[in-house]
Write a structure and sequence with these properties.
alpha/beta, Rossmann fold, 4 domains, six-stranded mixed β-sheet, 19 helices
């Protein structure tokens, strides 16, 4: 297992902010790593350091001689008028047949492959860039927020690509579902330090919270012991017969130290607008047609959304999700039919055209004070601004100096501080980190109003949506199933497309061959071997479960901080071993 890149004792600042503070990490040749951290922690800076585009102030970056990095470019690398095939040939130097073959893995064909690449949507352009990466035969991929603006189908294609890519990857993403599907390890950047966790994102987040809770319990125990010792010392140090005991207790007190809690930022806490729940129909569409003059995007739309629902608008890019949302908020007029909102509706909108029209003369604080519910306190405004990363002097920034992402967060804050009883949200998770997206999802789940939204973050969609509306092939209709069911249906479609392409390319389809009897004997032998391993694993899992239970019982009663930490580490080691054994058991159960 070769180390492709090693970062040693790296130090880097940006103004007063410490981005890297003695950071160390090694990336090896066959591991896919999910890279997480709060917005502004320095993830993109670290990528540029590893790429050699920025230098560290102290420390070193060591590249293996065979290292070939494939970096997903966020900028537009295309020339005016060239097709995707032209670009792939120009960028890689590979012949047209090879470029077409690789492009096929991302369903790039016909006009998508041979038409003007600049005319493609952002999601399809990302597919072209991914095909270009693969043509360069990298052994380490670096992807910075690769799922931004990708529809579900393209995300699944990217997941399958990464699953079949037998080399290393470092992936920055706030999309938990994507990281869970693609990465076996998790790297966190917090307070300038890099921590590599040997497990998937959900296990890492659970471990991190357990560790913090453990540290809180240890601190509570230490503080209680400190108080007890101080009381004994104060009571006995003046008494000649107990003074020596008091001195002994004082030495014990000096040794007792609390643990610094590993929290890099204050916990994000977001609330949605406080509104009264309502009954009945929020909006009704009858024989509706949507689109632009001379271009119908979808028609014959008959749809109702009830008060209190959280309706997820789903569909491939270019099918009309944003057109539907813009029509609902009257940013676009219907081409035909009738759109009617219920009585007493107040709509709050989050979309690109909204946050590009802020008053640039205002400060962030001034904008939030004007946009918020009159009953909102200044403390509420500061708390919401802080949750969306505007803290201390940052809240006094003028809108005119803010980046696009910062303006988007200002709009989100003002929307949540307002009084809207219907929220229409187009990609609300963009520009937010993992913790803030999770906090927003929880706020929307508790919201008493109606939510109509679209997002490319599957974890967010699954957490928030109560019903699903699909935009597809010129139609908009209720999808009778959960968001998870919809994802499964799209996954099956992608799998079928890959099966057809593999068959056309002459790849084996896994059907029985002429020597079936020999295969049957081998299969029977394999099944016996699998059965034996299953029984061994079941005994091992039972044994590990018992050991974990006993250690947890000891941990609950342990008052010595050092011993408590040792026991906790033993528990975590057993949990890792247990997870591996259970995962293997599941694999064999499907044999």
């Amino acid at each position: 297992m070769a180390v492709l890149i090693q970062l040693r004792d790296a130090h880097k600042r940006f103004g007063d902010q410490i981005l890297l503070d003695g950071a160390d990490v090694s990336l090896v040749d066959d591991v896919k790593v999910g890279f997480v951290g709060r917005n502004g922690a320095g993830k993109s800076t670290l990528l540029r350091v590893l790429l050699g585009e920025e230098e560290v102030e102290k420390g070193e970056v060591i590249h293996h001689p065979t290292l070939r990095i494939g970096y997903l470019r966020q900028h537009d690398p295309f020339k005016e008028g060239e097709s995707a095939l032209d670009f792939l040939m120009r960028d890689s130097g590979a012949p047209d047949w090879r470029c077409g073959q690789v492009a096929g893995q991302f369903e790039l064909k016909g006009n998508y492959l041979e038409g003007p690449v600049k005319a493609l949507s952002g999601g399809w352009q990302t597919r072209v860039k991914l095909a270009a990466l693969l043509l360069h035969d990298p052994n380490l991929l670096m992807l910075d927020e690769p799922t931004n603006f990708l529809d579900l189908r393209t995300q699944i294609l990217l997941e399958h690509f990464l699953r079949d890519f037998g080399k290393a990857a470092l992936i920055v993403s706030h999309d938990r579902a994507f990281l869970k599907a693609t990465c076996s390890q998790t790297l966190e950047l917090a307070k300038g330090k890099l921590t590599m966790f040997p497990g998937k994102i959900h296990d890492f987040l659970e471990f991190r919270e357990e560790r913090r809770e453990h540290d809180r319990r240890v601190n509570a125990t230490v503080i209680a012991k400190q108080k007890q010792l101080k009381q004994f010392i104060d009571k006995n140090r003046a008494n000649a017969s107990t003074a020596s005991q008091a001195r002994s207790k004082a030495k014990q007190l000096e040794k007792l130290q609390t643990v610094e809690l590993e929290v890099d930022e204050p916990t994000v806490n977001i609330r949605a607008p406080r509104v009264q729940p309502r009954q009945g129909t929020a909006v009704r569409c009858e024989e509706l047609a949507i689109g632009y003059p001379g271009h119908v995007v979808a028609e014959d739309i008959n749809l109702e959304i009830e008060h209190g629902q959280r309706a997820a608008i789903v569909g491939d890019n270019g099918q009309g999700k944003t057109t539907m949302l813009r029509t609902l908020v009257h940013s676009l007029e219907p081409l035909e039919g009738r759109l009617k909102w219920g009585h007493g509706i107040e709509i709050g909108t989050y979309a690109q055209h909204v946050y590009s029209s802020l008053d640039e003369r205002q400060t962030i604080l001034e904008h939030l004070e004007l946009a918020s519910d009159p009953a909102t306190t200044r403390q509420d405004i500061l708390a919401m601004a802080g949750a969306l990363l505007f803290r201390d002097e940052a809240i006094q920034k003028k809108v005119k100096v803010l980046s696009g992402g910062e303006r988007a967060r200002v709009c989100m804050a003002s929307l949540l501080l307002g009084t809207a009883n219907v929220l229409v949200l187009d990609e609300p998770g963009n520009h937010l980190d993992v913790e803030t997206v999770e906090a927003l999802a929880e706020a929307l789940r508790l919201y008493k109003g109606t939510v109509i939204f679209t997002s490319h973050d599957r974890h967010f969609m699954a957490r928030v949506a109560t019903n699903v509306i699909e935009v597809r092939d010129g139609r908009v209709r209720n999808y009778f199933g959960s968001y998870d069911t919809y994802c499964e249906a799209v996954e099956k479609e992608v799998d079928e497309g890959e099966r057809i392409r593999n068959a056309a390319a002459g790849k084996p389809a896994g059907k029985p061959t002429a020597d079936a009897p020999a295969n049957d004997r081998q299969e029977h032998k394999d099944q016996r071997k699998t059965g034996k391993e299953l029984k061994t694993l079941e005994r091992k899992i039972a044994k590990l479960d018992e050991e974990k239970r006993e250690l947890n019982e000891k941990l609950l009663t342990e008052t010595n901080p050092g011993e408590a930490i040792r026991l906790h580490d033993q528990v975590k080691a057993i949990e890792v071993e247990l997870a591996e054994a259970e995962e293997r058991w599941l694999e064999l159960s499907d044999f």
